[in-house]
Amino acid sequence: MNIVPKLIAENPELLLYIDGKLHITVLGGIKLTGFDRLKVTLKIVSGGNTNRAFRHNLDLYNSVHTEQLIEKAGDALDVAAAELAGVISRLTAALEDYRTERLEAKTGRKETAQRGRT
Hints:
118 residues
């Protein structure tokens, strides 16, 4: 049974991304500004084994950082590089969508407040 990749954003400072056997926590959330970077602190766990968590700080838009993450986390967690690369790619897309949704919600609130004042 395959688990559909999912971003759980109940707490904006502690985002959880689940993709198959990998659980990735984005510690500290993400900045809503600065679309030229996506700096995150990740905690990656494979198969629910919290004793073998891999932590890494990086900019997901920096290919060198991302390649290092895939190599080091794959070795530490015994996960194939190709599998991890796919998960990181889907995580990046999910975080981009999340950031866009949060910005649109924030902008919508500002526009509603401005309309109420006029």
